[in-house]
Design goal:
Length: 332
Amino acid sequence: MMRNKEIVLFYAGCLGLCLPFFLIAGAASTEMLVLCVSEALMLLCAFGLFTAWRYHRLRQLNDQMRKVREGRYQMNPQDYEEGELSILHSEIYKVTVQLRESAEQLQTQQQLLSDSLSDISHQLKTPLTSMMMMVDLMQQPQMEQAQRQEFLRLIAAQLTRMRWLIQSLLKMAKLEARAVQFMPQPTTVRSLINRSLSQAEAEMVRYGVETVLDCPADFTLTLDENWTAEALGNILRNCAEHAQQGQVRIMCMHNALVDEIVIEDNGEGIDPADLPHLFERFYRGRNAKPDSVGIGLAMSYQIITAQSGTLQVFSQPGRGSRFVIRFVHQIV
């Protein structure tokens, strides 16, 4: 404690102030001088003890801050009673909690990044390996022209899939980084759904799926048409893949609280174990197709929730799936 210059200066100042009183008391009588010196020593000792206690508490806070700096975030919020040190301790505790939460979020994000890079590497390495093998085989002079043309068709299909995958990953990265600037505008839901159906037309035709639209012509929502059409298109593709030769029904509902868009199919349904993970990136359920990547529904979820909407799925094996999109009315 005496290493602190302000404490030394305080004691020196007190001694300088008391010295004239000691001289006056000594001139009066020896007893008066002893009394004044004793009183001064008692006050200085009391102040010294109190200051030592406060510095002890400050050292404890310093030790706790050092532990926080070392990554140890344990701290008891009830160590102090009322007073200025208690306020300081409370503020340090709040900062400690925030740092701990930030460290946990950073660790989670680092793990997510590691998993994402691993998934992306796998998704790109598989078609690249396949294409390299086909290119090697095509270099053989004895290969028939028909086989060569088939290999070229397969390589073109793989390149198209890789381009779609890279574009989807870039969109997902922008959505997760909140770098997408949505441009909400009043949009009729029928035009939005027709645009989504055109995006999923190839899958609808490929799997022989019939679409039924039950939506009022004047039903309007305020949202970003481009991004929302892509979200609905991904859901429609998923329904088409799992409702081959079946039907996909699109319904719109409006009430005083929410606007709803419901997309349901009468296909094979979703395994209950897959439902909690359906909107996770790169998650492939038990009924996933061999060429499924597991990114479409995750992107739909990101797009809809980024516009203050919700996306839920209800399904039973053998009885189809029901995707419910809700936008709550904003109360001004």
